[in-house]
Specification:
Layout (H helix, E strand, L loop, with lengths): L1 E3 L6 H35 L2 H9 L1 H27 L3 H28 L1 H7 L4 H15 L2 H14 L5 H25 L3 H22 L19 H33 L1 H18 L1 H20 L2 H28 L1 H6 L8 H15 L1 H16 L3 H17 L2 H8 L1 H27 L6 H4 L10 E7 L2 H17 L4 H22 L9 E8 L2 E8 L6 H10 L7 H9 L2 E7 L2 E9 L3 H13 L3
Helix pairs in contact: 1-2, 1-8, 1-9, 1-11, 1-12, 2-6, 2-11, 3-4, 3-7, 3-10, 3-12, 4-6, 4-7, 5-6, 6-9, 7-9, 8-9, 10-11, 10-17, 10-18, 11-15, 12-13, 12-16, 13-15, 13-16, 15-19, 16-17, 16-19, 17-19, 18-19, 21-22, 22-24, 24-25
């Protein structure tokens, strides 16, 4: 049974979600921004054929994306569950392992690109006219593969450090570096397509150095450590993150097949239209993929916490607020389709211009459907339904579009391929919704059933409350006392739990709420389990670890300082603090069976205050 106070519930979670979303979007959009800059520079200062060469490299970008996706996906889920369970060292070890694997994979891909650029150009489908240019681009881009993969790992870890602003700075540095170096290398020094690739590689290095610099300081809570790495976790990371890579690989194969269809039924204009669209696609879907990554991360944390209410809230936030934003992106994509097309092709009367604008409009209409598919897939990945996620990744990445495309392309040309994208999204969504129906053998009647949540998940007796001001603190403490008494615990157990909550929440309101001009709330989760009262207190104020203050005051000689914190440590059987995704999370366990011992410690602490 659960009791809730609905007013203001999950306001903290909502603020954290939308504070982290721009960081996730920046990670997703990073590669697309570089590609757009490269495409525009190539079209304006070299020739249109160079745009096609960069488009051919798109499949290789998919390989890089697959490598990064499998690591980020696996590391996010594993570290999220460790973090939700309070295992900080294991969290650091998982993040460190992800960074190490990114370095190893990046070194291998860089070496292959530098040693065999011609072979890669052949595999990417370049003919003899384009092979030389594409080989040069492969060599130039190879220099930036390692920082690209490492930068993604460090940027993801920044979210746990409340340093999201550093990710924004890194993106700005990357874009400015890429544009500046493109102009210098191509316009001034006339280095051609190799100069474009080199500029992108150096921009990747600039991005990596900015996001990684914080982790060299002692302030970094998630500072990488080789000693904490558990190498056998590599298999778990790959297993969990494999659906991400599988999707990207399927998309890469699909791109090769669709390129052939377009060349056959619409010529080079269709291929150029798809290439230019792909350069912008990362920006268009950044909100959807970023929200999916957050759903995966936060779901992992709340699954580790056994926190049903917050898990459901994450899905509701993504499917309402983010969905509204995605509808806005869809409208903007359609409205500004001419502008987006004009970035690459200036002649509005040309065939390629018309096909490109057509693609932006059709795909834009499917963006809300894409978001729904991404939310479902990422949640079930966090929840461990890996077989389903693998199947839906293959469906979404290949079959859903490849079923209609060969049928429509011979009859409608490039338009048939564009419509196949939209039809494929609808097929994927239908298949995703069928999964819970087939598992339950009925149509789900609630969000809990759609998410296939076990009946015992978050089933312990608990109370969820939210505090907004000082007046709430005293009232909430009384509510906790009443809750404990109603569920069979002694009167003293309720008093002690309420007293701990009142002392800690009062400190947060007095000091944390006033530390800046932002709005803040406190979320309190009271769990009764095995004759223990567990208080989990969350706030989004400035970081504050009461353990440090307790240690300092305990070592001092003034018995009147921080009496409240001393009182809590005297009562509680266990106190644990951690900073998690921009939140202060304090867990206090009051053991009802040890009340005699707790009472003695409390009396001693209170006695020092006179």
């Amino acid at each position: 049974m659960a009791i809730h106070r609905q007013k203001g519930q999950n306001e903290i979670l909502k603020r954290i979600f939308f504070r982290l979303l721009p960081v996730q979007m920046a990670i997703i959009a990073m590669g697309s921004i570089n590609t757009i800059v490269d495409g525009v520079i190539a079209a304006r200062f070299i020739d249109a054929a160079t745009v096609g060469v960069i488009g051919l490299y798109y499949t290789m970008l998919r390989v890089l994306e697959a490598s990064g996706s499998v690591l980020i996906g696996g590391v996010t889920v594993l570290s999220g569950k460790h973090l939700g369970s309070g295992r900080i060292d294991q969290t650091r070890g998982t993040i460190s392992l992800g960074i190490s694997l990114a370095l190893i994979i990046g070194a291998i891909l860089s070496a292959v690109s530098l040693l065999a650029p011609g072979t890669i150009a052949d595999l990417l489908g370049a003919d003899q006219n384009l092979k030389g240019a594409l080989s040069a681009y492969v060599r130039g881009y190879a220099i930036g593969i390692i920082p690209q993969l490492l930068g993604q790992q460090f940027a993801s870890a920044l979210q746990m450090e409340r340093k999201e602003w550093l990710g924004h700075v890194a993106v700005a540095v990357m874009v400015v570096s890429n544009v500046t170096l493109d102009i210098v290398f191509v316009v001034v020094w006339n280095l051609g397509i190799w100069g474009i690739a080199l500029a992108t590689s150096l921009a990747n290095w600039a991005y990596f150095l900015v996001v990684a610099c914080y982790f060299l300081t002692k302030k970094a809570q998630m500072r990488p450590s080789l000693k904490l790495i558990v190498w056998k976790e590599s298999s778990s990371i790959i297993k969990i993150g494999f659906p991400n890579a599988l999707l990207v690989i399927c998309l890469a194969v699909r791109s090769l097949v669709l390129n052939r269809l377009l060349l056959t039924y619409s010529g080079s204009d269709g291929l150029s239209a798809l290439s230019s669209f792909n350069m912008v696609l990362g920006l268009i879907v950044a909100m959807a993929i970023g929200a999916g990554s957050l759903v995966r991360m936060l779901s992992s944390v709340f699954l580790g916490e056994d926190n049903r209410e917050s898990l459901l809230a994450v899905i509701r936030i993504a499917s309402t607020y983010v969905m509204a934003g995605m509808v806005g992106v869809a409208i903007l994509t359609v409205v500004f389709s001419s502008f987006l097309t004009g970035l690459f092709f200036q002649d509005s009367a040309s065939v390629v211009y018309g096909l490109t604008r057509q693609l932006f409009i059709i795909y834009g209409c499917g963006l809300p459907i894409a978001l729904a598919c991404i939310i479902i897939s990422n949640y079930f990945q966090a929840a461990g339904h890996l077989l389903f996620v693998n199947i839906i990744s293959v469906m979404d990445g290949f079959f859903s579009s490849m079923i209609p495309a060969p049928i429509l392309a011979p009859r409608m040309g490039a338009l048939g391929v564009w419509l196949a994208f939209l039809i494929g999204l609808c097929i994927t969504l239908i298949c995703s919704m069928l999964y819970p129906i087939l598992r339950l053998r009925k149509i789900p009647r609630s969000l809990d059933e759609w998410l296939l949540l076990p009946a015992d998940f978050g089933a312990s007796e608990h109370l969820v409350l939210n505090l907004h001001n000082a007046a709430d603190v005293t009232q909430t403490a009384k509510t906790v006392q009443t809750f404990c008494n109603q569920h069979g615990l002694s009167r003293k157990a309720g008093i002690h739990a309420g007293l701990c909550l009142e002392e800690i929440a009062g400190n947060i309101v007095r000091y944390g709420f006033r530390a800046d001009r932002r709005r803040h709330d406190i979320e309190v989760r009271v769990v009764l389990k095995e004759q223990n009262v567990t208080l989990r207190i969350k706030d989004d104020c400035v970081p504050f670890n009461p353990q440090k203050w307790h240690e300092m005051t305990s070592a001092g000689t003034d018995p009147t300082k921080n009496v409240g914190i001393r009182l809590v440590y005297g009562i509680a059987g266990e106190v644990e603090y951690r900073s998690m995704l921009g939140m202060n999370v304090l867990t206090i366990v009051v053991a009802a069976r040890n009340l005699k011992e707790s009472r003695n410690r409390t009396a001693g602490a209170a006695g020092t205050s006179g």
